[in-house]
Amino acid sequence: MGRRRELRTAVLGPAPRRLLTSAEPPLRAVEGRIVDASPHLLVLRAPARAGGGEPVAYEFRMPMSGRTTVWHGGKADLSALVPGRDAVVRPTPDGLAAERVWVDILRVNGVIVSVARERASGAHNIEVDQGPHRPRAHVTIPKENFGFILVRHPRLEPGQLFDVIALRSERGPVAIKPGTAQAGPLAEVPSPASSTLLRGTATWFSGDGRGAAYPALDPYGDSGGCPDAPASCASLPLLSLGSSLRVRNDCGRRSAEVDVIECGCTAARFCDRCVVCGTSPRGRVVELTRASFVDLGGDLDVGCFNVTLVVG
Questions:
Q1: Within 13 A of 67's CA, how many CA atoms are on the CB side?
Q2: Which 8-state DSSP code applies to residue 42?
Q3: What is the Cα–Cα distance from 55 to 235, expressed in whole angstroms?
Q4: Distance, C-alpha 9 to centroid of its chain
């Protein structure tokens, strides 16, 4: 048992500590650029920072097995593990092998700015405002995926909300499927919550490392909030950058402590629910980076999980 623990630590680093006695400890996702791949081994190069702050590149070697699954715009085989591509890996519970690999997966969500259709290919090009903290995105919806996207986004026009799981390509993100259910307009803005125990939907954004974007940061002083940010659909207490959140995946029963690293003002606009395991209360209460989302047992291609959040 001691040898297995030493091998796991050598491959993935020390695991985050357990925080809720009713939850399983988090997994330890690995993300980086593919250096090499074979049916038995995946090698990733990931940037990290040494104690002095200097950037250092680390190589992670993840054993592969016949049970390892790959996503590259959908179910894929090992031919998708091309050197140079971006990958996020979820290890098996014992940390000794790769359980699932997502290749070149992205997420784009925000407010539609413009829509244009290509006559020759039938593809739609969508410009999306992702909020003040993220760059605008230009997403292509191929003709073969348009009907699927339209189910959740029946009004593809400026001013409407947009959220898709996408595949990285040379010309930009290519929409594969809706991120979650389409949000409706805000009929009523709730008052800020006084409770520190929150339930709702957790999603993810295309951020590196580990951390969370919170939809209700205080807009005053140095708290990190946006002065013109919309009120959150969910009733949330105001927090500041650097606040600590205890996040539990109610579907996978995994829990971890995550720091707030960004304002999630775009998530505040969405009033949808997650239905991965039952139906969550309405509203997105946290956005996680890809690694943090996978640490907690989330599937990036599914896009959300039902969550319990403890603030403070």
A1: 7
A2: E
A3: 39
A4: 24
